[in-house]
Specification:
The chain has 1 helix and 6 strands. The strands form 2 sheets. It has a 4-stranded antiparallel β-sheet, with helices on one face. A two-stranded antiparallel ribbon has the order 1-2. About 10% of the residues lie in helices and about 30% in strands. The radius of gyration is 14 Å and the shape is globular. It has about 100 residues and is mostly beta strands. A hairpin with a 5-residue loop joins strand 4 and strand 5.
Length: about 100
């Protein structure tokens, strides 16, 4: 039996193990999720791989932010407002910066 969360028009079915991450990876304390117009899912979490990008079927596409101190509040605003155009801002040393 599947679990349904939410109410009214906003009801969602829980799909266990939907995210197909590389071996040994896990999502830790997910803080935000955004979906772009191509149904890519951007998952911001507080684990070893802060930004994980999945396709609509949960297949791993890429990650970024490893080893960086990510600007949580501004990153979340970018995810909420413009996931369609999400390109992480970078400095020459390839660390994510707050803009």
């Amino acid at each position: 039996m599947s679990v349904i969360l939410g109410s009214g028009e906003h009801r969602y079915r829980v799909v266990d193990n939907w995210a197909k991450l590389p071996d040994g990876w896990q999502l830790t304390d997910v803080a935000s999720v955004a979906v772009d117009s191509r149904d890519r899912i951007y998952v911001f979490n507080r684990g070893a791989h802060p930004m994980v990008v999945l396709d609509r079927d949960g297949n791993f596409l890429r990650s970024w932010g490893e080893g960086a101190v990510l600007p949580r509040s501004s990153l979340l605003k970018k995810l909420e407002c413009c996931a369609d155009h999400l390109i992480p801002p970078r400095k020459a040393d390839v660390s994510v910066i707050d803009t």
